[in-house]
From TrEMBL:
<dbReference type="InterPro" id="IPR011706">
    <property type="entry name" value="Cu-oxidase_C"/>
</dbReference>
<dbReference type="Pfam" id="PF07732">
    <property type="entry name" value="Cu-oxidase_3"/>
</dbReference>
<comment type="similarity">
    <text>Belongs to the multicopper oxidase family.</text>
</comment>
<dbReference type="Pfam" id="PF07731">
    <property type="entry name" value="Cu-oxidase_2"/>
</dbReference>
<dbReference type="InterPro" id="IPR011707">
    <property type="entry name" value="Cu-oxidase-like_N"/>
</dbReference>
<feature type="domain" description="Plastocyanin-like">
    <location>
        <begin position="159"/>
        <end position="324"/>
    </location>
</feature>
<keyword id="KW-1015">Disulfide bond</keyword>
<keyword id="KW-0964">Secreted</keyword>
<feature type="domain" description="Plastocyanin-like">
    <location>
        <begin position="421"/>
        <end position="554"/>
    </location>
</feature>
<dbReference type="InterPro" id="IPR034267">
    <property type="entry name" value="CuRO_3_AAO"/>
</dbReference>
<dbReference type="InterPro" id="IPR001117">
    <property type="entry name" value="Cu-oxidase_2nd"/>
</dbReference>
<protein>
    <recommendedName>
        <fullName>L-ascorbate oxidase</fullName>
        <ecNumber>1.10.3.3</ecNumber>
    </recommendedName>
</protein>
<dbReference type="InterPro" id="IPR008972">
    <property type="entry name" value="Cupredoxin"/>
</dbReference>
<keyword id="KW-0560">Oxidoreductase</keyword>
<dbReference type="GO" id="GO:0008447">
    <property type="term" value="F:L-ascorbate oxidase activity"/>
</dbReference>
<feature type="signal peptide">
    <location>
        <begin position="1"/>
        <end position="23"/>
    </location>
</feature>
<dbReference type="GO" id="GO:0005576">
    <property type="term" value="C:extracellular region"/>
</dbReference>
Amino acid sequence: MERLDVLKLVLLPLLLAAVAVQGAVKHYDWTIDYDFWSPDCVEKLIISINGQYPGPTIDATVGDTIIVKIHNKLPTESVVIHWHGIRQRGTPWADGAAFVSQCPVAPEDEYTYQFVVDNAGTYFYHGHHGMQRAAGFYGSLIVRPKAGTVEPFQYDDELSIIVNDWWHKSVHDQERGLYSNPFRWVGEPQSLLIEGRGAYNCSLVPVGAVPNSGDCVTCNASAPQCQPYVLPVTAGKTYRLRIASVASLSALNFILEGHNMTVVEADGNYVEPVVVDNLDLYSGESYSVLFTANQDPTRNYWAGLNVRGRKPLTPTGLAILNYLPNPSTLLPTTPTPVSPLWNDYNLSLAQAQQIKAHSSLEIPFNEWSGSDRTISLLNTQNKLNGVNKWAINNVTLVPLSTPYLAVYTYKKLKKVLSATPPPPLTYTPGYDIFQPPVNPNTTVGSGVYEFKLNEVIDVVIQNANTLTVNASEIHPWHLHGHDFYVLGFGNGVFTSNDYDNLNYVNPPLRNTVPVFPYGWTVIRFKADNPGVWPFHCHIEPHFHMGMGVIFAEGTDLLPRIRLPAQNLGCGLTKDLIRG
Ligand SMILES: *[C@@H]1O[C@H](CO)[C@@H](O)[C@H](O)[C@H]1NC(C)=O
Ligand SMILES: *[C@@H]1O[C@H](CO)[C@@H](O)[C@H](O)[C@H]1NC(C)=O
Ligand SMILES: *[C@@H]1O[C@H](CO)[C@@H](O)[C@H](O)[C@H]1NC(C)=O
Ligand SMILES: *[C@@H]1O[C@H](CO)[C@@H](O)[C@H](O)[C@H]1NC(C)=O
Ligand SMILES: *[C@@H]1O[C@H](CO)[C@@H](O)[C@H](O)[C@H]1NC(C)=O
Ligand SMILES: *[C@@H]1O[C@H](CO)[C@@H](O)[C@H](O)[C@H]1NC(C)=O
Ligand SMILES: *[C@@H]1O[C@H](CO)[C@@H](O)[C@H](O)[C@H]1NC(C)=O
Ligand SMILES: [Cu+2]
C-alpha cells in the first residue's frame, strides 16, 4: 500500500480514474512448466500454464482487478508475462516486458502481477522474454463491458480462438540460429494452429522413424491434443467470434468456409462494421467478427488459416465449424479454404484501410490540436559483424540488462543511458527504400525516446528493402501502454504531402498495426501514461534481432514511483536490493 500512497501523490488523476471503475478482484495462481505436448500431432516440449496449452483464459469485466501469481517451474529459464493490449495505467511495473518493466522471474521464483482492466475487448497474454511466446506460452484475456453497458452490435453466443504458427525445432534452436554467422534460418513453420491445434501429415516423418526411440520425431495422428478445434453453432444464430494472433513469424488469413464475417472490434476498440469473406491477421492483432450460421445445417464447414506475406510452405490450419447436432467428427468433404494470393499486398492494404473507428467513438484531435512531435522510423535489415540484424534509423536495439523502468525511477541508475542515444528522430533523407542498403552495417543502441507528459506524438513507420534484392517484408508494430490512432497507410516513401491525405475523421484505435512492403504507416498517440513502453515489431525473431525502440513517458514523474521489490534484482538493480 505504501507504494500506492507515494504514487497517488504523483498520478492522482490516473489513480482516481482507476478507482472509479474498480470492480471485482480476480485471483489466479499459475504454475509455469515445460510439458510434452502434440499440438500438431508431433510431440515436443511446450511451455504450459497449470498443465494447460494454450494457457487458461482470463475472463473479466471492465473495472476488475486481475491478480496473477506465477510460479516459475522452468528448470533453467526466467519468465515474464506481458498483458497484450492492457494499458497498465498507473501500474507500469506490471506490463511484463523483460528488462523494460521488470527483471525476468528466475527459476523457482514467484511474481504477482496486479492490474486493472479498463477497456472491454479481446486481448491475450504471452511470454515476453526470449522466444518463449513461440514455445506456446500464451493465452486469451477477455474483458467484458460492465453490466448495463450496451455494445454497438448484437449476437446470440460467443466463440473464441487464438492462432499461431508452429515449428518442430525448439525455440532455442531457432534463437541461436538468428545470431549465427552465417545466418541459420529455421525456415517456414511446419503447421498453423487454431486454439493450439493443428495436424502435421505424419506420413512426412522420415521413413524408418521409430516413435519414442529418441532419434526421430514422434507423430501420432490420433493424439487427442491434435484433433481439430471445434466451433459449435446452432443454425440461425449469430455468433461473436473472437480471434487473436500470437504468430511468431507469419501474417495469417482466416476464412470461415461459406460464411461472411462482419468485423466489429479490433484490438479492444469498436470499429464500423466491415463485411469480409477472409480476414488478414497480423501477429499481435485481435478482432471480433460476427457471423450467422445460415448455411446448409446438414453438414459441417472448415475454419481455415493460411499464410500471407511470405511464400507459403505451410499447409492450411484447420478447425471445424460444427452445425449441431451434427457430430464434430463429420469432416467437410469440400476443399480446404484458399486465401488470396500471398503477395497481393494491395488487397491486404485495402482491407487494413477499411477498418475505421466506430461512429460512436469521439476522436479527440481538436482537443489535441495536431501533434507536438513527429518521429520517423526507417525499418531496414542490416549486418553487424556479419550477423543479420534489423535496424531502426540504423540502430539495432539491444535492450539494457537493467530494466528501463528502474533506470528512470532510480536517479542513480540514469548513467547507464547516457552512453546509448536513441536512433535519430529521422533517417537519412534520400535513402533508397527500394534497394538493399548500400552499406548494410548497422550500429547498436539501447537508447530511449523521452516524452513529456501529454505530448502528442506522430510516428511515421517507413518500410524498405531487406538485404535481398526485390524483397520487403510486412512488420506488425505493437506499442505497450497505449492504443494509438492509425492515421493512414501508403505505398512508397512518405512525404509531407501525405499528411493532407491522412484520416483525421475516424482513424481506428489499435495497439498493433502493420507496415506493408515498401510502404509506410502513420500513427498518433498522446504520451499520457507515465512509464517506459517498448514499441516493436511483433514478429518474434525480428524483435530479437533488434527491431524496436523504447519510449519513456512523463519522465519527470517516474522518479516518484516506487517499484515493487519483486521487479528488481537483475543488472544494476541488484545493488538497490542490497542497499
Ligand atoms: C501426406 O503425405 C503423403 C506423403 O508425401 C502424401 O502421399 C499424402 O497425400 C499426404 N496427405 C495429406 C492429407 O496431405
Ligand atoms: C496414438 O494415440 C492414440 C490416442 O491417444 C493411442 O491410442 C495410440 O496408442 C497412440 N499410438 C502410438 C503409436 O503411440
Ligand atoms: C458475402 O458477401 C458478399 C459481398 O457482400 C456477397 O456477395 C455474398 O453473397 C456473401 N456471401 C454469403 C454466404 O453471405
Ligand atoms: C498496387 O498499388 C500500387 C499503387 O496503387 C500500384 O502502383 C501497383 O501496381 C499495385 N500492385 C499490384 C500488384 O496490383
Ligand atoms: C562492414 O563491417 C565489416 C565488419 O563486420 C567490415 O569488414 C566492412 O568493411 C564494413 N563495410 C563498410 C562498407 O563499412
Ligand atoms: C548506416 O550507417 C552506415 C555507416 O555509418 C552508413 O553508411 C549508412 O548509410 C547508414 N544507413 C542509414 C539507413 O542511414
Ligand atoms: C519481385 O518480387 C515479387 C514477389 O514479391 C514478384 O512478384 C516480382 O515478380 C519480383 N520482381 C522482380 C523484378 O523480380
Ligand atoms: Cu518485423
